[in-house]
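User: Last request for today: this protein with NAP, please.
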Amino acid sequence: MASSGLLAGKRCLVTGGNRGIGKAIAETFAREGASLALVARSKDKLEEVADSCQSQGAAACEIYPFDLVNTGDIDSLAKRILADKQVDVLVNNAGIMDGLIINVGSIAGLEPMKSTPVYAASKWGLRGWSLSCYDVSRDDATRQAHMFGRLSADVMATASNKLAGKWCVVTGGGAGIGQAIAETFAAEGASIALVARSKDKLEEVAKGCKSKGAPQVETHSVDLLDLQALDKFAKSFLSSHKHCDVLVNNAGMMGQGTPTEGDISKWEKCIQLNLLAPMALTHAFSPGMVEKKEGLIINMGSVAALEPMKSTPPTDIAEAAMLALRTSSACVPSEITLRLTLSAAK
Ligand SMILES: NC(=O)c1ccc[n+]([C@@H]2O[C@H](COP(=O)([O-])OP(=O)(O)OC[C@H]3O[C@@H](n4cnc5c(N)ncnc54)[C@H](OP(=O)(O)O)[C@@H]3O)[C@@H](O)[C@H]2O)c1
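Assistant: Here's the final one, the structure of the complex with NAP:
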């Protein structure tokens, strides 16, 4: 992704910033000119990532070796981090359990592109849905957990196999970003349920997930435009496994059209797949997460909402969205494009 200095003047706190996705996020932020604060346990690895971030353009890079399992000490960590500078962007990358909900949103939800208002509408909606769900569950104690990524001791104890024993449902898992997520989770020991329409592609990805280390892999050929089929899948998954630990709402499509032209039936499909299907799957799987007090829901977005297209002048709406981004949420313009709709540390 070309750098546009999107995060110049911003201070970004990345937990788990010493390897894997956290490292990728930190380096991507670095290329956008951010000032970074990295939290993780291993000082050596943090130093390596800090060097790499500096060489890629970070304005500054501080490291905070810290074990996030020590939730009692998180206040003092926060005070040190916030001593004389605010945090503009918080990425709770290390925290994936204990009720932490990470919603991966869309750049189109923040920076609508003139050519894709339907797509942008679906991603805006998804962002609103994500934020509202998060707000509903928030109280002081959980907010702290959300902000600093509290991890279960057992998860941390097996840090290189973080998702062992977990079932991850990945929609759109037959290609692209969904495939990459599924394989990454597989490498962390998760069992994977891949959902998409094309059976052949799903089988191919399933092989890859098995070879990466997933103990169990299932493929579900489901058209998520069909709410009944979606419901049937969710019920059959829950009846087999009782619980979904991680839901990745990744399947998505572009919706062509503008206010003056286009086929509304296609708009409906875009909203259905990008917004209603994630909402319906959240509805199906989140009660179990709430009951277990543990779960992760990732809603996939688009880098275009964070990286204004040079050919598309910002609109008033985009300006308002960028303001919201600065004040209330964290963003990750990475190759995988994570949009984390958690509140920024205040
Ligand atoms: N790639 C990018 O540059 C980019 C940029 C911004 C945002 N995103 C977002 O990232 C997500 C994934 O993008 P991608 O580029 O990885 O997509 P992709 O390569 O086109 O893969 C899309 C996946 O979704 C599945 N899918 C599509 N329609 C479906 C339906 N009706 N029911 C069930 N599954 C369906 C596809 O499988 P079948 O066709 O077999 O069903 C495929 O597995 C999307 O939400 C997209 O909006 C991507």
